[in-house]
Design brief:
The structure holds three protein chains of three kinds.
Chain A (H helix, E strand, L loop, with lengths): L12 H4 L21 E3 L2 E6 L2 E7 L2 E3 L2 E4 L5 E4 L3 E8 H21 L19 H17 L6 E8 L5 E6 L5 E3 L2 E3 L2 H5 L1 H7 L3 H6 L2 H18 L6 E8 L2 E9 L6 H4 L10
Chain B lengths: L1 H4 L3 H4 L31 E6 L4 E6 L2 E3 L2 E4 L5 E4 L11 E7 L1 H22 L5 H14 L7 E8 L5 E6 L5 E4 L1 E5 L2 H11 L26 H18 L6 E8 L2 E8 L4
Antiparallel strand pairs in B: 1-2, 1-10, 2-11, 3-4, 5-6, 6-7, 7-8, 8-9, 11-12
Chain C lengths: L19 H12 L3 E5 L3 E7 L13 E5 L2 E7 L1 H22 L5 H14 L11 E9 L2 E7 L5 E3 L2 E4 L3 H10 L1 H4 L4 H14 L12 E10 L5 E9 L5 H6 L27
Antiparallel strand pairs in C: 1-2, 1-8, 2-9, 3-4, 4-5, 5-6, 6-7, 9-10
Classes of the chains: A alpha+beta, B alpha+beta, C alpha+beta.
GO cellular component, one term (chain B): cytoplasm
Keywords (chain B): Cytoplasm, Nucleus, Proteasome
Organism (chain B): Parachaetomium inaequale
């Protein structure tokens, strides 16, 4: 008989064998997203006089493999805002489901009061793009602080509380910033300089027309397709204005010219 | 032989550029965490306390690596006002380092100040706010806010007060402090120009007999010029500093905010 | 002596389908001094009569700011109101932190509604002994809500709760059509007139016993709304308003029957 207090009330080792505590051990790293797997490349967006234009191609890559060629990476929210996702596609889909829930909750919350104002797509009081961006930034920051990041860089476009065009970014670490034009991934190197020529400041952006903004974005998508190896010539483009979101998810890059490729030397088989 | 097939994603998983590749030397089964929760978003801040004012300043560039993410991202925040627009605030916090942590720190401190006002029916003093900020930072001692914070305001006697912090909460009240990417460029300039370090009275003697120039508090105008000079210098020599200069002057009449252009290159 | 067997807890129905504890809690609201709230298209106001327990004591506060856009007026147990007010402050702060906007007033009121309802369905709990008028502005404009210890919440154009509040309600009912287009000052005056109706015979509105709270949302040219933060006015700040309703007979005394409860009976209410 074992008389030690720590043995009281426990199964006796000599009858039941020593307790195997090994499966209770929790040492060793906790597993979470450690790197992106299936990824989307750049998202680009630019503000104009009365709204924002955003675009992203329809490709989801598995490493260097062009794995899925019909993936929609722009997502409307409450038909008043647009969210564009770069980075991990599964995390994007998680966020998409999460934003759906949020939108439904928000719609219920304002159901009883949503009566008159039918001329505007935004029911007054519903989350605007600025609110949504704030929320997403808190979500992303929380996940990074838990060491379980959502491996995305996200652009949010729409309007703020003062009904001014709104464009902002949040990344997997919860870093947020705004600018008249924004681009994620390769777009930050290739598209952002082009867009900044047209909208270096908020005043410049406020002078741009919708047509100009769309043209700039399409031009940038072309440059990205030329130079970004993980890109595609089918893309989605969204224009968000006070009248709501116009989203086209099956655009084809037009007027491509690969003539410049002739003059490139020093890559691949072409040595001289 | 294996090297020949290493480009096949179906066999080895996706391919990454060299330094992005997952490390495989992790302990049994589980891979090692390689997510780095921090980045440095560059930028620089500066604070100078005067006799009856305090000046806080920071550039408005936000970088990651060689990219400029935004040309207008303020690093100065008014703290502890009654409303969201902080119209009646009396304290300014500047944060530089990892922008997301800076933002989180600011919101935490502001929420604390708001609850203080609810509970006590009066605004927080700078001294109390400074102590509380230290506690907030220290509470995350083992997963720190990666930010260099400076707090500015007016003390109980109406004198300018500047408190500077390290990322884990040790703090000190100072006459002036520079923080962030160009701190090492600006701080020596401040030592010389604000505290008159290494300034001597000409021909007052040789060696130890040489007399130091007498210290005097700077006027508000002198300080504002000094701040602009400090940042113009930093912009010239540091790639992460530039675009815009945000300056807040705290006086007994409230907080005045000025935005000046800096070089955008 | 008659003894009611169904009022020992708030989880047992009486055979008539009543929950006495909840009804008693509603009585506690009627012990508190009267508060009035009115909402127009641009403003929401709260006005209240403060009581002092004795000549030498100070007056108990009746209006409390919750967040920059919301305030409450209380009638009933002040300490219970403080619990609710703290909860509301926390929720508003949290909402502002996560979404960067004013919490919609309805959302906020629904939260205290659910919180109070829980107390009416769990053994060992006690309903809040306080009624609230919640006034605030959000993106849909000004709102006024009533909250009762039962957990009932309802949006109101104008309302009054507390001792002898029926008189005030009668005044409000008579003038209901005027409120929507009232300006800020006129709305406060309507509130004070309603308040006067509920006063006992020889008492008057004074700068000591009157509180006024106002929140506003005025549309500006660019389509956005400019929020006038909720602010409480006391003492000399209400003198002009009191003066302006001093001897007008507009509205007249309603045919209110009044509940005629005695003032403060043993229970520690917000005297």
């Amino acid at each position: 008989m074992d008389h030690r207090p720590q043995a009281w009330g426990r199964p006796r080792d000599d009858v039941y064998g020593a307790y195997d505590a090994s499966y209770l051990q929790t040492n060793g790293p906790k597993t979470a997203t450690q790197s992106p797997i299936v990824t989307g490349t750049s998202v680009i967006a630019i503000k104009f006089k009365d709204g924002v234009v955003m675009a992203a191609d329809n490709l989801a890559s598995y490493g260097s493999l062009a794995r899925f060629t019909d993936v929609k990476r722009l997502r409307p929210f409450l038909s008043t805002s647009i969210v564009g996702f770069g980075g991990d596609v599964s995390d994007m889909q998680f966020l998409d489901r999460h934003l759906n829930e949020l939108a439904i909750d928000e719609a219920y919350e304002h159901e009883s009061t949503a009566t008159t104002d039918t001329d505007s797509p935004s029911k007054t009081g519903q989350l605007n793009a600025a609110n949504l961006h704030k929320y997403l930034s808190k979500l992303m920051y929380r996940r990074r602080s838990d060491f379980d990041p959502l491996w995305n860089q996200v652009l949010v476009a729409g309007f703020d509380a003062h009904a001014k065009p709104f464009l902002a970014s949040v990344d997997l670490r919860g870093t947020t910033f705004t600018s008249p034009s924004l681009a994620t991934g390769f777009g930050a190197m290739l598209a952002q300089p082009i867009m900044r020529r047209f909208a270096a400041t908020e005043e410049d952006a406020a002078a741009l027309t919708r047509e100009q903004a769309v043209d700039v974005v399409k031009e940038c998508m072309k440059v990205l397709f030329y130079r970004d190896a993980r890109s595609l010539d089918r893309y989605s483009i969204a224009v968000v204005t006070k009248d709501g979101v116009e989203l086209s998810e099956d655009e084809q890059l037009e007027k491509q010219s690969w003539a410049f490729a002739e003059r490139i030397r020093g890559y691949g088989t072409q040595v001289v | 032989m294996a090297a020949m097939f290493s480009q096949n994603p179906l066999m080895n998983g996706p391919n990454y550029s060299v330094n992005d590749a997952p490390r495989v030397n992790a302990p049994e089964g589980a891979r090692e965490h390689r997510f780095d929760p921090y980045t440095d978003n560059g930028g620089s801040t500066l604070a100078i306390a005067g006799a009856e004012f305090a000046v806080m300043a920071g550039d408005t560039r936000l970088t990651s690596g060689y990219s400029i993410n935004s040309r207008h991202h303020p690093k100065l925040f008014k703290i502890g006002g009654t409303t969201a627009d902080q119209k009646d605030a009396t304290i300014v916090l500047s944060v530089v380092g990892f922008a997301a942590d800076g933002e989180a720190l600011k919101e935490k401190l502001d929420a604390v100040c708001k609850m203080y006002r609810h509970r006590h029916g009066k605004p927080m003093s700078v001294k109390a706010c400074a102590q509380r900020l230290s506690t907030i930072l220290y509470q995350k001692r083992f997963f720190p806010y990666y930010a260099h914070a400076i707090l500015g305001g007016l003390d109980e006697e109406g004198k300018g007060a500047v408190y500077s912090y390290d990322p884990v909460g040790s703090y000190e009240r100072e006459q002036c402090r520079a923080g962030g990417a160009a701190a090492s460029l600006i701080m020596p300039f401040l030592d010389n120009q604000v505290n008159f370090k290494n300034q001597h009275i000409p021909n007052s003697g040789e060696g130890h007999a040489l007399q130091e120039r007498e210290r005097r508090p700077l006027t508000r105008n002198e300080v504002e010029v000094l701040v602009k000079d400090a940042f113009d210098g930093a912009v010239e020599r540091h790639i992460e500093v530039g675009d815009g200069l945000q300056m807040m002057v705290i006086t007994k009449d409230g907080i005045e905010e000025v935005l000046l252009p800096l070089k955008k290159d | 002596m008659f003894r009611n067997n169904y009022d020992n807890d708030s989880v047992t129905f009486s055979p008539q389908g009543r929950i006495f504890q909840v009804e008693y809690a509603a009585e506690a609201v009627k012990q508190g001094s009267v508060v009035v709230g009115i909402a127009s298209k641009t403003h929401a106001v709260l006005v209240a009569i403060k009581r002092n327990a004795e000549e030498l004591s100070s007056y108990q506060k009746k209006l409390f700011p919750i967040d920059e856009h919301v305030g409450i007026a209380i009638a009933g147990l002040t300490s219970d109101a403080r619990v609710l007010s703290n909860f509301m402050k926390q929720q508003c702060l949290g909402h502002r932190l996560t979404y960067g906007r004013n919490m919609p007033v309805r959302t906020l009121v629904d939260m205290i509604g659910s919180k109070a309802q829980i107390n009416t369905q769990h053994y060992g709990k006690r309903p809040y002994g306080v009624g609230l008028l919640v006034a605030g502005v959000d993106e849909q404009g000004p709102h006024l809500f009533e909250f009762q210890p039962s957990g009932m919440t309802e949006e109101m154009v104008a309302f009054a709760i507390g001792a002898r509040s029926q008189m005030a309600r009668t005044y409000l009912e008579k003038n209901i059509d005027k409120f929507a287009d009232c300006g800020r000052e006129e709305l406060v005056r309507h509130g004070l007139r309603a308040l006067k109706e509920s006063l006992v015979q020889d008492r008057e509105l004074t700068v000591d016993n009157t509180s006024v709270g106002v929140a506003g949302a005025v549309k500006v040219d660019d389509g956005s709304t400019k929020v006038e933060p909720f602010q409480v006015y006391d003492q000399q700040d209400v003198a002009a308003w009191i003066e302006s309703v001093a001897d007008d007979k507009e509205g007249g005394a309603g045919a209110g029957e009044g509940e005629g409860e005695g003032e403060g009976e043993g229970m520690e209410v917000d005297s």
